[in-house]
Prior knowledge:
The chain is an alpha+beta fold. It is built from 15 helices and 43 strands. The structure holds beta-D-glucopyranose (BGC).
Amino acid sequence: xxxxxxxxxTTPRCEHRTDSGPALGIGTASPRLSWTVPAADPGYQQGxxxxxxxxxxxxxGAEIVxxxxxxxxxxxxxxxxxxxxxxxxVRVRVRAGSGNSDDEGGEDAAWSPWSGAAVxxxxxxxxxxxxxxxxxxxxxxxxxxxxxxxxxRIELPAGAAAGAGEVVKARLYITAHGVYSATLxxxxxxxxxxxxxxxxxRHRLRYQTHDVTALVQAGExxxxxxxxxxxxxxxxxxxxxxxxxxxxxxLLAQLEVATADGSVHVLxxxxxxxxxxxxxxxxxLYDGQRTDLxxxxxxxxxxxQVEGGPVxxxxxxxxxxxxxxxxxxxxxxxxxxxVLPAVRVFQSPSGATLVDFGQNLVGWVRLRxxxxxxxxxxxxxxxxxxxxxxxxxxxxxxxxxxxxxxxxGTPGGDEVLEPSLTFHGFRYAEISGVPNLRADDxxxxxVGSELRRSGWFSCxxxxxxxxxxxxxxxxxxxxxxxxxxxxxxxxxxxxxxxIQVFSPTAMFLFGSAGFLSSWLADLAADQFPxxxxxFVIPDILSDTxxxxxTLKGAxxxxxxxxxxxxxxxxxxxxxxxxxxxxxxxxxxxxxWVDHLAxxxxxxxxxxxxxxxxxxxxPTAPPDNPFGAKADPDVIATAHFARSAEVVAMAAEVxxxxxxxxxxxxxxxxxREAFAIEYxxxxxxxxxxxxxxxxxxxxxxxxxxxxxxxxxxxxxxxxVGSSGFHISTGFVGTPLVTDALVAAGEVExxxxxxxxxxxxxxxxxVGMGATTIWERWDAxxxxxxxxxxxxxxxxxxALGAVADWLHRTVAGxxxxxxxxxxxxxxxxxGGGLSAAAARHxxxxxxxxxxxxxxxGQFSLRVDVPVGTTATVHLPGAGEPAPAPARVTHxxxxxxxxxxxxxxxxxxx
Length: 907
Ligand code: BGC
């Protein structure tokens, strides 16, 4: 019998890289590989793969390694580790069956064709690979001075130009204290913005690797790097705090040019560099950027005196960061991810010129101006909303969000105005200094981590489609290197609770495994030695007076926020199949749970201490987001049980059964204590709030069937008595629909989902929202702004319901890590006539779509090669129809619509 065949696998991906180009600057010597198989014969199951590795120039020919394994996601590097800078080209092919299977077609015929070749190149893997030093201008570039440009030069031999065959390869390894943007010989290096991004700088600072082969030239080469304040030295947090990491900007840059004769020419940042002022007079992430375009950024200058300013010497600075803290990026860089045209230019009641971009987004405004005189000032202010017809800046609190320009006044020509060292969250801009502004002259440049889109949802209700779109935009805006709460006001921090609830949605919508793994490394680095967890990662709050007063000397241990330490790694593992994330995080996960166990003591209950609780419960008083109905001790004890259980499951995955048993026993004790202390025999839960029922049902905290039934009924009653309005905050909202469905209250879940009065998910949609709001009533029905605090219009946390739309409404869920098994169980309801979801799983695209028409329910499912699916058809009958198990390919079912009205009986 011939073995079933597969088509050629896709070009292998390296670690969590999702970009299509060469994987340059990989931070590990043994990068793991993944591929998908676009199509295969029925019955195909991978039995073996071969990896062909061709190492860099001069290395002996290709090495082929055969591995008998069904795995195709994050498989181990099968060869000797790469050296720093070493490149390899890698292809794979796959075969069904076992090594000794007897394929009629002969051994070779059983193999798929080879995939395309991926190029993998290691970065600088050790501190010793750097000869560069951190340098900083001596006199220029101080706080409140213009952004400096640092300049270094290198002479390359004649004939070294790219294309002349002499330059074999040129790489720039670079990072900064601050944010940087580099040019080589006047040409922009790469297209990243706000590099090196934001990490827990005291422990981890990313460097970037750029291929600059095409930019180097024979003779003199000039590397110039503009440094902005960024997160390092700009404002961060409330109360005007800034320069949290240091008051000097610095650059670390190493340009390595290899020529055909085998020599490597290196330009490394050191005292030989110089500095001068740039055209950027000031720059700040919160406040914006001011640029004097009369002092144009100097092009490839070889002159020693820069127009408009003196040349300064630089000095090597005590980095406060040794080179061991340099890490290669795990996730994608921040880039421009889109450009939106202005939809309308109009005058406000006070006569200001306003531009509406039609979408709340994150980035900046690009303006084209003409006919202005040198030194004329153009000012661009940003806001997410209008307030009484004027730019609504109150939600920004103290962030000025203002870019301004002193124009060069190019005679007869257009001048393009845009910043590069800041970002804003906005839909509207107020522009002054440009007479007769046309919509054509303004566009919004969208900026964020360039994550690959991997998840889609649609259904027959356009309002839900808009809600989903709003979730996508809130993720785009708040995944700007760090998963932030909001992108616009004087905050923009990596609030742990927000990403804890949103991580499942994030992992579905965009390839976020690398992004979140990197953030988790920061989390572990910033966690306190006693296991307590900062509220934000990177941690910039713990040393504030406010935090100290709030915590009264105790380590922070806020439920749902600190539990990001356990839940986010678990979600990343579940959705990506990457067990190494668990291995790396396990000490941090354990430390958090051990800390909670210490706080709880023998009672296993969490009592008192600072808690955010069910933050922004809409029934809490507007001026007291802490005043939620759900009891904070109940919430905290529920999270303690869940986190202990997650640690047990993670240890089990990692094969550490002793640890798994210990934490499973702890989880069981906490659950027992929870039930004794907080749950009545009939299933009432202390504080009788929707959130406590949602937690108890979703996390199996109710021991008896009677309690579960009682709690489910009570939850449905409470949702009904609230008029199907949302009455949950950050903690309960992501779980309430799941809990209702688990309790058999499908229509109640749908009524809650489809409510349009405030508060509800669809109320903001009706108010024209294009992103998810921080609070349900951020804008009041009359269009005015809520008079209270916490008024972000771009906060993904409450959009966590999208995960339920994917898993339950459309019915596409993972049933094994990395979606190696799919659970297809659509739960139709709410009058929807159709719903669909698609996801690029690590194995390829999975898709589910269903439709109800003419008394029939049709279901279509696409299962990627390498996975299986268990498909539950909705059915009214008892017992429910048996689930079908299917393998890869396209599958369709047609059954009676369980929700169809019974046919009218003729009389
Ligand atoms: C943030 C929230 C965050 C919260 C902590 C707020 O200022 O915007 O999203 O989780 O503080 O309670």
